[in-house]
Design a protein that fits this description.
With 239 residues, the protein is an alpha/beta fold. The protein folds into two domains: 137 residues, NAD(P)-binding Rossmann-like Domain (Rossmann fold, 3-Layer(aba) Sandwich); 87 residues, ProC C-terminal domain-like fold. The radius of gyration is 21 Å and the shape is elongated. The two termini are 35 Å apart.
Length: 239
Amino acid sequence: MNVVIVGNGKIGRALEAGLRRAHPSWPVHTLGRNDERTAVAQAEAVLLCVKPSQVRATLESLCPTLKAGSVLMSVAAKTTLASLAELLPPGIGVVRAMPNLPVSELVGMTAIASESEAQDIERAEAIFSAMGRTVRVEERLMDAATAMNGCGPAYAYLIVEAWIDAGIKLGFSYETARTLVAQTLLGAAASVLASDEHPAALKTAVTTPAGCTIEGLMQLEDGRLRSTIVRAVLAAAGA
């Protein structure tokens, strides 16, 4: 598939890296603000990776070269399908997508919303599922998806940072603590995805009576970690 990424910020560069790793044979072009738009004329999919305030001006520069039958996939936050469609010529599919930065490592998470033809959504899924997992959501939930998976890595990094600090306090080197924490978190996430059990059941399986795990869990509950995370996600969704 011929893909053009418009915007070379962090998410644009992450998508480029992920696509080049997942599909080395695909033509992938990344365009900055002042780059020529000629590559767009051959693109089957155009990934719009610009700030919401730049969407209108960017689409005005793209529209004359968009290929009939191509699909515009916008990752611009708070930019509706309707507002995108009214800026595009007829015959161009429109999809909203909210990926996160781990797409560069092929373990990203992308939420997708569209009212276009099924083939347009399938094309979006083919692109983003190559770099991790995808879910289809109603457009009204796209801002919530931004808070959940778009912002989500930052929440995890903060927890990882604190967890590593605890390891250093216990006497591990930074490198060893980082490995212990990152692989443990990776394994826990894999268990959640592989199991139909609720995370509470998985937690119970680790928590032996009168053991050290319950001591740690009590401290997390005393620190209101659970409610703090919920409030953080809700605040990001409303921002």
